[in-house]
Amino acid sequence: MSLFSVFYFLLSIALFIIALPLLILLSFKKKYRESIPARFFLFRNPPFQHLDALWFHVCSLGEARALKPLLQKFSSQEVCISTITHTGHAEAKKYDAEVRYLPYEMHLPFWIHREKVLVVLEAEFWYLLFRVANARGAKVILLNARISDKSVDKYLKFAWFYKKLLEKVEIIYVQSEVDKNRFLALGAKNIEVIGNIKLAGEIKKTKSYVKPQKSELIVAGSTHPDEEDAVLKAFIAYKKHMPHAKLVVVPRHPERFASVYEVMQKYAGEHSLTLEKFSLTQDFGSDLILVDMMGELNNIYAVSDVAILGGAFREDVGGHNPLEPAYFGCKIITGKHFFHQKELFKYVHHVQYVEPDEIAAALKQTKELPPSMVEETIDLEPVVQKIKEYMK
């Protein structure tokens, strides 16, 4: 290891010691009960058993799903997948692959063995992951790489560090020309623009539900705290003009099902609306429906007229994937803070971008707009061929 790598390793240990009380506390929360013990204490998280395998590293649910079209090209290859979040881990387990949580960096010199290729998605920039994997013989590829508008200044302030981090990367496949220029400013080399690989993903439903007759079905998908309040206020105002409209709320994180239901109960009581949990009825008979089940969002999009896409009405989330509601022909309303999904929104037409207090007006405007749609595709073949070349 270089002197800087030794310093970085020692710093990671110091930070771990400082954060230890918080990590122990968070380990008792449902959201982190599996991921924190695995990542920071290696609990039930041994190294990959397969050597000389193809290793993909992703952060969470969206990136894990985006792997599917790539993994189909390597069905005969031993594949390993590491993740950061619980939802990403659960999604990765659906593949024929060896799945682990990526350990905290101080563990990586002892945890990483020998893989031939490491493919890292989006913005998962871990210095010791790149350094140690490369030292053990892996070719490192960045795929779907991006630097958001919100993050670019931070990256440029530490350009000296990211130049060191990117030294061991063989090739970077970025989402756009803007991303390419930002990586060049960080000192990166061998950069190719291929677009967003999420455009290559298969979008489908897993169940078929019956759309309520003579009703407009509005789904608020992947919502975060405070967004449900804004959507419910807008829906109450809109329902005065469209009394047969129904609202389906699908929170982004399952640990929030109970708290979101309480918020919906408050609005239902104040405005004499009916309310149901989708897990109990699996229909759309009430005015308000909470989807308290995982894996149902595409099935709901398939029967919805309008999708209010969450994650972009707050400044700290960055939006969510618009391809799925667009694929099913929903009229999309979202917020203005979609910086993590900016590249995908370029390909989706007829979207309304509004502030939280403008959602009600946007709902009325949907009457004048055509359904949202996607017109772009992506060719993954150059990526597949490069990985195969490195796997030889």
Kindly summarize this structure in a few lines.
Keywords: Cell membrane, Lipopolysaccharide biosynthesis, Membrane, Transferase, Transmembrane, Transmembrane helix. By secondary structure, the chain is an alpha/beta fold.
Topology:
Blueprint: H1 3-26, H2 35-41, E1 54-57, H3 61-66, H4 68-71, E2 79-83, H5 86-92, E3 98-101, H6 108-111, E4 117-121, H7 127-135, E5 139-145, H8 152-157, H9 159-166, E6 169-174, H10 177-185, E7 191-193, E8 217-223, H11 227-239, E9 246-251, H12 257-270, E10 275-277, H13 278-281, E11 288-290, H14 297-301, E12 306-309, H15 323-327, E13 331-334, H16 342-345, E14 348-349, E15 351-353, H17 359-365, E16 373-374, H18 381-391
Parallel strand pairs: 1-2, 1-4, 2-3, 4-5, 5-6, 6-7, 8-9, 8-12, 9-11, 10-11, 12-13, 13-15
Antiparallel strand pairs: 14-16
Domain 3-deoxy-D-manno-octulosonic-acid transferase N-terminal: 36-199
GO cellular component, one term: plasma membrane
GO biological process, one term: lipid A biosynthetic process
Envelope shape: globular
N- to C-terminal separation? 26 Å
Return the CATH class of the largest domain. Answer: Alpha Beta
The CATH level-2 architecture of the largest domain is identified as 3-Layer(aba) Sandwich
Secondary-structure-based class equals alpha/beta
Report the portion of residues in β strands: 15-25%
Rg from C-alpha positions?
22 Å
Number of strands: 16
Mean pLDDT across every amino acid position: 95
Function: Involved in lipopolysaccharide (LPS) biosynthesis. Catalyzes the transfer of 3-deoxy-D-manno-octulosonate (Kdo) residue(s) from CMP-Kdo to lipid IV(A), the tetraacyldisaccharide-1,4'-bisphosphate precursor of lipid A.
Domain 3-deoxy-D-manno-octulosonic-acid transferase N-terminal: 36-199
Protein name: 3-deoxy-D-manno-octulosonic acid transferase
Site (Transition state stabilizer): 122, 198
